[in-house]
Design goal:
This protein has about 1200 residues and is an alpha+beta fold. It contains 17 helices and 62 strands. It has a six-stranded mixed beta sheet with strand order 18-17-2-21-24-25, with helices on both faces. The protein has a six-stranded mixed beta sheet with strand order 31-30-35-34-33-32, with helices on one face. Strand 30 and strand 31 form a beta hairpin. The longest helix is centred in the N-terminal third of the chain and has 15 residues. The N terminus and C terminus are likely disordered.
Length: about 1200
């Protein structure tokens, strides 16, 4: 018989929360509500539990047990571990689930290991990937790569002692690198490890030799004594579970006067030291075996407890003459409301799952009294009343009640759906007759049945039951559909929306859908309006293009679109970088084994058993290997959620001239190419980098409280070279390349050649090593440009080859870093050859081709400027996550040129060191070359000595730098006063700047050097003198700013400027009352601003009217939706003038969120002259 001894619990037990932009969708309250798994143990205290059995002698930690037969003790002292599956075999050469005991940094485990032989908790090992370190779960099958190990209980109990020779402190992620790792911090508030996912059980080799050995002496023990010991061991070894305890009443019959059912003697409580002592005292000293076995009646009473209903059988127990003392131990009245007589449910507002583990040594007896009450059970779901419809099994309602409890909402007074799963353990040979009923009850109760014959096996069965406990995904984390990513195609009238449905687990459902723009409105199939005019959401009546006729999938993320296509596509073409030298090859097990250098290495990277590698790869490719059935009972070949969530990846549309293709990444770890066939869509191929193979296991497990998993989550950039300009991409001569980072998915960039849309190839892959060791998470969208550094040929035949610019990325320690703290990653700008990925230039704090004094990571895209019109980029602008704006001048072909070196200076310093001034720039600056009318006052003295002040107006050229602050990693934060800025850069000539000689570095602009436009000073009614005075004051400033005045309002994307009007977006987070629990996050507000570039005045009234019917006054902003909005995008589509004989004029609008905003833009030819006198 296989023996299992493992705990695999799903919890989120973190005493603090850390910034992450999915907080817009995932309620922290939901996560915290699930931080402790709740387990009620029903302990059989019937008379038969007094029977004695001859069993293996109990474990003695001081005894040195011999090796199990066939094995020889190893010289080194190892600890073994299990994350599910068979118990490890000690001393076996092929058993890799072990590590040297000296590496154990979990001090909390040492006591349990020394006294019990095993310990269960959240265990982590530190692992580097692409030069970035993080505390990860242990590999399921191989502990050979464990070098540093620690546990959650040490953090909870403020224990800083770690393994011998390792510095003291609390585990922390992302500090240091492989050459200089930093595993710990002495500040517990910076310990950012999220202790979610499975529990791991550690064992001493000595305990396993006892458990598996067959030479251990025997002893005679009663069943109840063995049960007491098992419960003691498990409670002590699993401190992160909240346990409760229920026992049977005496139950002498099924009449109303009998002591029916059972009572809860210890309500579910957090296992503090005091509560653990109290619980175990009840188990060890106060429970005695007498009476019958009312299994169903006791479970019915447990259902009342979870439901918060009136106590029924809980107060039934009473004395039986002189041979039985009733209510000993007494029921726990602390879980009852004395005023109402009802139970106080252990569920919190946002929790949705609890568990019952029923231990019994026999069939139910005197167990009919609850039958009528069970038959009368009702609940309400979605407004409908549901009644109990279960049936009896073996003349008992135990299984039917278990089915009710796991499928129906037990507590209608709380938000969400509250359910309970049942696990059953048949203990001793006496339970053999009850096995069919216990198996059926566990099956219908969404649990599992275990059999145990002695204390060791009962302990194993209890842990085996705990192995399966999963907080469910029943509570939705957000009622809204996020669909803020879109792009337009060169066919002008198609709009593609990437959308996703947030969930509590790491795996989210996503989709990509198509609509069209007709006469300024978005429509679906058959011309149906795409949006509901009342809500602004996608209409429930619209059918998106690509979906089946009348599918009406508009407001349903999972329906229609590419998701539906992939569910029905069994011939997918999926590549990975597992070919020779990392080239693309079809994703097969054999090819992956070759790439990784062996099946063992591939399995180790994936964290699965070697025998399961192919199954997990098939799952990743979308196959329904888990046989998940549809609502109609059929089992499809492909998973319903095969298309993951494109959380931040925006669809990139490429017009090949003879076809339209869309490229998009998802957090399932794949990049997809789709072909738009107008009314239908097909996937050409998908690319799954092998770096994401390690994500397959947790994605498949999809534990409800596990971390969100990220894959290809960065924005995609394309380079298209149609060499003959015929508008058709010929794969033999033309070039189409795409480039993308991973955002929170990692610290690397990929480049693919997709010139032939049917046959992609990999150009290069950059990781955070070597020339790119400063690279943080790759948030910065690559920008294609041309540079003097990347010319080929000579003389008149010189050709500029494309380059990419990208920022150093995001330093994740910024998630918890206090304002003003310095980053250690991402403080860089890189230029690489677009074709080869070779570094051409870097700007670093030290060791770069150009050095600078920055201290904060650069997560945004880089703004590029060709200031002299020669087609080559000669200037860069960027903001950083410390609120600074930097300018880079590249006036020559050599960054180190003795006459014209490349230089960098801080153009503006706008952030501070307090929470309110902790401005962070995540969006690319928008650069506008413009003339601004300045008002200048001069003094003129005539021949008589009279001085007169003359006010004049002068058009001055500037490079206007537009940028808004807002922490993308903390979108619901409200403690920062974010701002939108317009900076006038008067140095419009690209040149070198110096600190000591001319031309000197300009003085850094601070906020006080900008004019405050927050209150719209030019929008007020002013006299001529007042306006002149204002103009003079504004002209003396280096630009302007508008404070974003909503609570927590922040800029969300880069701005665009059309015809002198600045369009930018912002987000106001929901008002989260700290005294209220939010199971589902309320919506925030996404705003669109439109202001005059020079004056900051409002432009539109957004078609609003006053109550009297007159047009409203212009306002700077309008509420677009509840979304965290992306950048406004200009779309130009023909507008039908109703005359078939004329060519429809192309009219421009901007699209933001789901709204199309008319801006009165028409295509026109214009030429702007800007003369700059250059020194010879």
């Amino acid at each position: 018989m296989k023996k299992y001894l493992a705990i695999s619990l799903l919890l989120l037990i973190s005493t603090m929360s850390f910034s992450e932009d999915i907080e817009l969708y995932v309620s922290e309250a939901v996560k915290l509500a699930s931080k402790k798994t709740q387990v009620l143990i029903i302990f059989d205290n019937s008379g038969s539990m007094t029977k004695e059995e001859t069993v293996k002698f109990r474990y003695e930690p001081g005894e040195n047990y011999p090796a199990i037969p066939g094995q020889t003790k190893l010289e080194k002292t190892y600890l073994y571990y299990n994350r599910g599956g068979e118990i490890p075999i000690p001393d076996k050469s092929g058993e890799n689930r072990r590590f040297e005991a000296s590496l154990n940094g979990c001090q909390s485990a040492k006591v349990a290991l020394n006294t019990l032989g095993f310990y269960t908790g959240h265990i982590r090992r530190y692992k580097f990937k692409n030069n970035t370190g993080k505390w990860n779960n242990l590999n399921k099958n191989n502990g050979s790569n464990i070098y540093v190990l620690d546990c959650e209980d040490d953090v909870v109990n403020n224990i800083t002692t770690n393994a011998s020779g390792v510095e003291a402190g609390y585990p922390v992620n992302f500090l240091g690198d492989e050459s200089s790792p930093e595993y710990y911090t002495d500040d517990i508030t910076k310990s950012d490890v999220v202790w979610s996912g499975e529990f791991v059980t550690l064992y001493t080799a000595n305990y396993l030799r006892w458990f598996l050995g067959d030479t251990v002496k025997e002893e005679t023990r009663s069943r109840i004594d063995m049960a007491r010991q098992s419960i003691n061991d498990v409670v002590k070894a699993a401190p992160s579970i909240d346990f409760g305890l229920q026992v049977f009443n005496y139950d002498s019959g099924d009449s109303d006067t009998s002591e029916n059912g059972g009572r809860i003697i210890f309500g579910i409580n957090e296992m503090t030291d005091a509560n653990e002592t109290k619980l175990l005292k009840l188990v060890n000293d106060d429970i005695f075996a007498q009476g019958n076995t009312p299994l169903c009646e006791t479970l019915y009473e447990a259902s009342l407890y979870f439901s918060g209903k009136a106590v029924d059988y809980g107060n039934d127990d009473k004395d039986k003459g002189t041979y039985y003392d009733g209510n000993i131990p007494p029921r726990d009245t602390t879980i009852e409301d004395a005023g109402t007589g009802k139970y106080i449910t252990p569920f919190s507002s946002c929790s949705s799952k609890a568990y019952v583990i029923l231990i019994t040594d026999g069939v139910p007896t005197q167990d009919k009294h609850a039958d009528g009450k069970i038959e009368a059970l009702t609940t309400v779901e979605d407004g409908s009343t549901i009644t109990f419809s279960g049936s009896k099994f073996s003349s008992n309602y135990l299984a039917g009640l278990a089915q009710w409890m796991t499928n129906r909402d037990l507590n209608i007074d709380l938000a969400g759906k509250q359910t309970v799963d049942l696990y059953t353990i048949g203990f001793s040979a006496g339970a053999d007759d009850a096995a069919p009923l216990l198996k059926e009850a566990a099956k219908l109760g969404n649990g599992k049945y275990f059999k145990a014959t002695d204390s060791a096996q009962l302990t194993a069965a209890l842990i085996g039951a705990l192995e399966n406990l999963e907080p469910s995904n029943d509570s939705l984390t957000s009622a809204s559909v996020a669909s803020n990513n879109f792009d337009r195609t060169e066919t002008l009238n198609s709009v593609y929306y990437a959308m996703f449905q947030p969930d509590n687990g790491p795996r989210w459902q996503g989709n990509l859908k198509k609509y069209k723009v007709v006469n300024g409105k978005q429509v679906g199939k058959h011309g149906k309006s795409a949006l509901d005019e009342d809500t602004g959401q996608f209409s429930e009546d619209v059918t998106s293009f690509w979906s089946a006729d009348n599918a009406k999938d508009g407001n349903a993320v999972a329906d229609g679109g590419v998701a539906d296509k992939l569910r029905n596509k069994t011939d997918r073409v999926i590549y990975s970088d597992i070919g020779t030298d990392g080239a693309l090859a079809l994703l097969t097990k054999n090819q992956a084994v070759t790439s990784f250098g062996g099946l063992d290495k591939l399995a180790d990277d994936m964290g699965v058993a070697q025998d399961n590698v192919e199954e997990y790869l098939d799952w990743a490719k979308g196959k329904n290997v888990d046989k998940v059935a549809l609502d109609d009972g059929t089992i499809p070949a492909m998973r319903a959620d095969v298309f993951g969530d494109p959380l931040h990846s925006k669809p990139l549309v490429i017009n090949y001239g003879d076809s339209i293709r869309i490229v998009i990444g998802t957090n399932a770890g794949a990049l997809h190419m789709f072909q738009d066939k107008d009314d239908s869509v097909d996937e050409n191929w998908a690319f799954m980098p092998k770096d994401f193979f390690s994500n397959i296991l947790p994605l498949r497990e999809n534990f409800a409280t596990a971390d969100k998993i990220y894959g290809i989550d960065g924005a995609i950039t394309s380079y298209i070279n149609d060499k003959n300009g015929d508008g058709v991409i010929d794969s033999a001569t033309d070039e189409v390349w795409i480039f993308f980072g991973l955002r929170r998915g990692g610290s690397s960039y990929y480049a693919l050649d997709i010139s032939d849309p049917a046959k992609p190839s990999k150009l290069w892959h950059i990781t955070s090593k070597g020339d790119f060791s400063e690279l943080g998470q790759s948030w910065s969208k690559p920008k294609v440009a041309y540079s003097k550094l990347n010319l080929s040929g000579s003389g008149d035949n010189k050709v500029a080859n494309p380059v990419l610019f990208f920022g150093g990325g995001y330093d994740v320690k910024k998630d918890v870093l206090t304002p003003g703290g310095n980053d250690s990653k991402g403080r860089a700008i890189y230029m690489v050859d677009a074709k080869t990925g070779a570094k051409k230039w870097s700007m670093l704090t030290s060791g770069g081709d150009t050095t600078y004094t920055g201290t904060d990571s650069i997560a945004s895209s880089i703004a590029i400027l060709d200031s002299d019109g020669d087609g080559l980029t000669d200037r860069l602008y960027t903001g950083d996550t410390g609120g600074n704006v930097w300018r880079v001048d590249m006036p020559s072909a050599d960054p180190a040129d003795s006459d014209d070196p490349w230089t960098v200076f801080k153009l503006a310093e706008l952030g501070g060191t307090t929470n309110s001034s902790d401005l962070r720039f995540f969006n690319e600056p928008s650069i506008v070359r413009t003339f601004i009318s300045e008002t200048i006052e001069t003094e003129v003295t005539d021949v008589d000595g009279e001085t007169t002040k003359i006010v004049s107006h002068q058009e001055k050229p500037y490079d206007a730098v537009l940028i808004g602050s807002g922490d993308r990693s903390n979108p619901i934060g409200t403690d920062t006063d974010d701002t939108f800025f317009m900076i006038k850069d008067s140095n419009i000539k690209t040149q070198s700047f110096y600190s000591a000689v001319e031309p000197k570095i300009p003085e850094t602009i601070v906020k006080s050097a900008l004019y405050n436009y927050t209150n719209d000073p030019f929008g007020k009614t002013l006299t001529t003198q007042q306006r002149e005075t204002l103009e003079l004051a504004v002209s003396k400033k280096s630009g302007w700013y508008i404070d974003l005045e909503g609570s927590g309002e922040k800029s969300t994307a880069e701005a665009i400027v059309i015809n002198g009007i600045v369009y930018f977006t912002s987000f106001i987070p929901p008002d989260l009352d700290p005294n209220k629990v939010h199971c589902v996050l309320p919506n925030g507000k996404g705003l669109l601003y439109a202001v005059d570039l020079a004056l900051g005045t409002a432009i539109y009234n957004w078609n609003k009217v006053e109550p009297d019917g007159t047009d409203a006054e212009p306002e700077r902003s309008v509420e677009i939706s509840e979304q965290f909005l992306g950048a406004p995008t200009l779309i130009v589509v023909p507008h039908d003038d109703g005359d078939d004989t004329t060519v429809d004029k192309a009219v421009g609008n901007i699209i933001v969120g789901r709204e199309i905003i008319p801006v009165g833009f028409t295509l026109q030819t214009m030429r702007t002259y800007l003369y700059i006198s250059e020194e010879q």
